[in-house]
Amino acid sequence: MQRIRAFAPATVANLGVGFDILGLAVDGLGDFVTVEMSSHPGVEVVEITGDEGKLPRTPEKNTAAIAAQSVLKHLRASTGIRLWLNKGLPLASGLGSSAASAVAAAVATNVLFGETMTREDLLPAVLDAEEAVSGRHADNVAPALLGGIVLITGHTPAEIHRLPIPEGLYLSLVTPDVEVPTAKARAVLPEVIPLKALVHQTGVVAELIHALHVGNIHLLARSMQRDTVVEPARASLIPFLKEAKEVAYRSGALATVISGSGPTLCSLCLTSTDAEAVNLAIAAFYKDENIGATAHATTPSATGASIVEAL
Amino acid sequence: MQRIRAFAPATVANLGVGFDILGLAVDGLGDFVTVEMSSHPGVEVVEITGDEGKLPRTPEKNTAAIAAQSVLKHLRASTGIRLWLNKGLPLASGLGSSAASAVAAAVATNVLFGETMTREDLLPAVLDAEEAVSGRHADNVAPALLGGIVLITGHTPAEIHRLPIPEGLYLSLVTPDVEVPTAKARAVLPEVIPLKALVHQTGVVAELIHALHVGNIHLLARSMQRDTVVEPARASLIPFLKEAKEVAYRSGALATVISGSGPTLCSLCLTSTDAEAVNLAIAAFYKDENIGATAHATTPSATGASIVEAL
């Protein structure tokens, strides 16, 4: 095979209370990377589309190229690749945009070179890429790579756990047109928290994991919303967050949380009809406030990244 | 029925990383409370045995009497009870001694009055009793009352979750003869913790809940030992904790943690033979250090408190 095209999905990190430890891959929304062999060593970024010209073309600064380069290094490849990146995800939206590019590139490159590495083997390469843009966090890259809902307690395969996806879970993802830089979203977090808050947060995270295992979407929704540390600190970064949540609940959302560091809002719903209604309601609300918004109704993706073309 | 005798088991709170949110009931070790009708209102403490005369006989200060009184109040009983308490558990050992007395008393009193309350209904009564001696915590009373491994995220029934008990789990419980007052064990804890520690603790607690649900005892053992906040702060209160743990691991323990606020050490084992070996090894180690110790090999109790005699 001389040309491989891979897709990697958007991901919702945190799920409310699971700051830096939980992430969920979603269906149908994500980035595409195409790679082909090159006689020159290293990674050449041939073209990036869908980014409105905002992403760096320099291979050392582009997450897709960094991930691909890290895979090449691991494979001790003497040849290189040419890489096309097609962004389906908006940048800095809280949907794991950089992670999706990195994962698609790593998966495509691995297949181009005979698929000698497992998905788990690719984790260090995509973490290298993520580190270059937003710190070495696996809460977006792990679910984009492996699919499903993923618990991350470290960066070794034994510390990454796929959790059950409850049956009948639908998601509304609404991204208002506001900027929330990841660095700022980290800067507003408290440096220390009271021990009492630790007890509360460990309890509700435990409740969330229990809810996933027993398939109780109502309990999942309740536990997601019981975060007292991260989301309250970030609330001021997202205009009208409280009001948008109220709109969502009135339209059928069981829980509405900030996806990753925002500004995307992720709502849990029991039907696709509800997810569509929540999309429309939140988007209409923001429109009334003169803020545009894009919306997607989707479901969790059990599979994560996939190969979409191999020529 | 005019006379009811109830048993309530010892409990291991925290399970390492689950400070104030997790507790486990164990088999065969616990307190007995006998109650009978009295024409006088209120609770008369007739006799306490097994406590070496240390527990208060005044009903207002005795956890069994407080719990029984709280049940009587809930039932709007016009008559009272006479109460006998037989302590099977050592005091201030980290095995939920006060909780076991309170739970046995509440369960016995409820049955004496026709068992109109469910186990969940009895929770406020036993919390009243626990509050009088060590604060309003449910991590001992909930598992003693309900059995099994219990997650507590609040004090309403909807916030108390019974978790699966993995098959083939054996426990060694060794109590060295040292005093660790609960108040002191709370005082050594940090008032605030870094956000980074929150991420770590929520991750390992999530891993522990996942391990229970998938029945992976090795993962359970690993996650229990990854506490970086509570047990490190308390380590100095238990003489030779580090050495005792090493002895336990060499004898077959998969994990050894402080039970509740100590000094009891709870070790996870894969067989009853291993649990007995760990008991002997830790006890022998402490004997060499001129510290006595009592040891019990047991298993999780799925049932919690029970009626042992009804005449």
Describe this structure in words.
2 copies of one chain form a homodimer. Chain A is an alpha+beta fold and 311 residues long. Chain A has 2 domains: 3-162 and 301-310, Ribosomal Protein S5, domain 2; 170-298, GHMP kinase, C-terminal domain (Alpha-Beta Plaits, 2-Layer Sandwich), CATH 3.30.70. Helix content of chain A is 36%, strand content 26%. In chain A, the strands form 2 sheets. In chain A, strands 1, 2, 3, 4, 5, 6 and 12 form a 7-stranded mixed sheet that branches. A 4-stranded antiparallel sheet of chain A has the order 9-10-7-11, with helices on both faces. In chain A, strand 1 (3-13) and strand 2 form a beta hairpin. The longest helix of chain A is centred in the middle third of the chain and has 20 residues, at 195-214. The radius of gyration of chain A is 19 Å and the shape is globular. Chain A starts with a strand and ends with a strand. The mean pLDDT of chain A is 95. The interface between A and B is large, with 38 and 38 residues. Strand 8 (192-194) of chain A pairs antiparallel with strand 8 of chain B.
Mean pLDDT score of chain A? 95
What CATH calls the topology of the largest domain in chain A is Ribosomal Protein S5, domain 2
Instruction: Report the CATH C-level class of the largest domain in chain A.
Output: Alpha Beta
If interface size is counted as residues with C-beta under 8 Å from the partner's C-beta, which chains form the largest one?
A-B, 38 and 38 residues
Structural class of chain A: alpha+beta
Please write the string of helix (H) and strand (E) elements of chain A: EEEHEHHHEEEHEHHHHEEHEE
Rg calculated over all Cα atoms of chain A: 19 Å
Unreliable spans of chain A: none
Largest sheet of chain A: 7 strands, mixed
**What is the number of strand segments of chain A?**
12
Tally of DSSP helical segments of chain A: 10
CATH architecture of the largest domain in chain A: 2-Layer Sandwich
Quaternary organization: homodimer
Relative strand content of chain A: 25-35%
User: How many structural domains of chain A?
Assistant: 2
